[in-house]
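Why do we bother with holo predictions? Because pocket geometry can differ from the apo form. Keep that in mind while you read this record for adenosine-5'-diphosphate.
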Amino acid sequence: MSTPQPAVETRSMVVARGVRKSYGAHEVIKGVDLEVAPGEVLCLLGPSGSGKSTFLRCINHLEQIDAGWISVDGELVGYREHRGRLYELRDAEIARRRSEIGMVFQQFNLFPHLSVLENLMQAPLRVRREAAGPVRERSLALLDRVGLADKAGAYPRQLSGGQQQRVAIARALAMQPKLMLFDEPTSALDPELVGEVLDVMRGLADDGMTMVVVTHEIGFAREVADTVAFLDGGVVVEAGPPSQVFDAPQHERTRAFLARVL
Ligand code: ADP
Ligand code: MG
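The structure, written out:
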């Protein structure tokens, strides 16, 4: 059982306190504390298996945590408060809250049988039951924003990996999320396509989107992150501004990791 605290008094977009998560006997998140203020970018770095994806999944209601608590925009993940008591969320409420968080994966997961524009319009129409006209306008504007205004009628298979990932980002934005989670968004891309996706993400950050980004792109993290957190073995080994973590890492494990990826 998790042990959430009632009444999350915070201005932060994301707060994680003492978060633990096990799969069977294997504890993969071992007491993580992290915080992301509105408009800030948190980059998560760490070796494979350190728990980065699991942590994102916990923020996004895809995993139940075993201890500690997470809040998004002042609401406890998995619970609602009523008259000072906590109640577990029903599926419909979980779905509503998840629809306010955008997530972009290494694999783009576009709907192959839908055009680019239809990919963007799908969730606002089907999940939110919004009117088609405004959704279409918003979607076309988003395609323009990610540099793909001319691809509205194309199908995913006709696009490069970098273009597909930019569509995936635009599709997440079509739900007007208050938080964007990225799980190694450029790891599946050919090197020459990485830059165009990072440019879109940089633009989002500049526009004030709150973002949690799992990435091995140190240059991006150094430039865009407000905070970099280095995870290893399910714990935050160290966290701080990029200049501190990259230029003056305090822990041997961070130094060893950076020596391998830089
Ligand atoms: P990272 O994203 O940092 O590479 P993950 O969060 O994917 O790490 O995984 C952390 C650990 O949890 C790994 O040892 C992985 O094998 C394990 N793990 C992840 N998901 C599951 C699952 N659904 N069932 C069992 N073990 C899992
Ligand atoms: Mg991962």
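The mean pLDDT is 95.
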